[in-house]
Design goal:
Helices cover about 0% and strands about 5% of the residues.
Amino acid sequence: MDFPGLDLSNFDFSGLTFSGCDFHHTALHNVKFRKAFLEECNFRDAKINNADFSDAKMKKVDLRKTELMESSFYHTDLTEAKLIGAFMMDAKFTNAIMKKADLRGADMKGTSFFGADLTEANLDKAKIKNTDFKNAKLLKVIGDKPS
């Protein structure tokens, strides 16, 4: 299934499977994807505000240049996710699994990675002002390692 350019705001997709689906340029405001299976989906250039992706499986998802405002990724598996140039203002990645995630040039102002596993993540040129990395696993991070 493909949804490019659609407005899917206010829907509850919790527990559903969308493996490999195309959501690029899609509006996803106030949506729920709790425990959804979204591996290898394309969310490139999507507008995602106040969304809940808690416990979702999002391995190898494409979130390049995506707007992720005030969205929650609690305990979400984002292994090898592409977040290059993403805008993540006030997003929450609490206890997320983000091994080998590519966050090059991402704007993470006010975002929390509390307890997240960012092992081998690429943070090169990421904007990390006011970003919370407390208790995050930052082994072998590429780029400037947050202090």
